[in-house]
Amino acid sequence: MTRYLPNRKEEFDLRTHVESSGHSVDTCPFVILTEKMCKGHLVKMGGKIKSWKKRWRRRRLAPGIAQHKHESRLKGLIYFQAIEEVYYDHLRSATKSPNPSLTFCVKTHDRLYFMVAPSPEAMRIWMDVIVTGAEGYTQFMS
Question: Under a CB-based contact definition with an 8 Å cutoff, are residues 38 and 125 in contact?
């Protein structure tokens, strides 16, 4: 059983949460993880033009996932309130993925994002980090 819920507590420590879930953050050079933020590169499939682009991702204990390395200039944003599911692409539905075994999906209200991590451990960390802040599914809990 996984322990994922949106966590908005001010004292929440993201790094401790991820490490207590069994991830060895220190041995994964592709992810920069602090108590309040996760940063690193992921490859993302485009929305209209289905090409794959390397993008800098940042997950802060704030509204969403930024898509540009220079944090003052956002290329795009995925709001945590819109995220319904995060899962491994076991059906290989991402066309022409650069690495199908490292592809995962972020499902929002209006779009399905396909992302590729640089390593298996980075993929597991990113999936846990993103789903820790996801809130879109809470609309069904009443």
Answer: yes
d(CA 102, CA 99): 6
The whole-angstrom separation of Cα 49 and Cα 85 is 23
Contact assessment for residue 31 and residue 39, using Cβ atoms and an 8 Å cutoff: yes
> Cα-atom radius of gyration of the chain, to the nearest Å?
14
* pLDDT attached to residue 88: 96
**For range 7-22, the mean pLDDT:** 83
Query: Encoding tokens for residue 80?
Result: 């945590």
**Which of the four pLDDT bands, split at 50, 70 and 90, describes residue 1?**
very low
Whether 62 has a pLDDT exceeding 50, the answer reads: yes
Structure confidence at residue 66 (pLDDT): 53
What is the identity of the amino acid at 98?
A: P
Return the bridge partners of 37, or none. 60
Largest Cα span, the chain: 41
Res 3: pLDDT:
47
Q: Give the tokens for residue 125.
A: 């960390």
Can you list the positions of beta strands (E) in 18-126? 32-33, 37-45, 52-60, 64-66, 77-79, 83-88, 103-108, 112-116
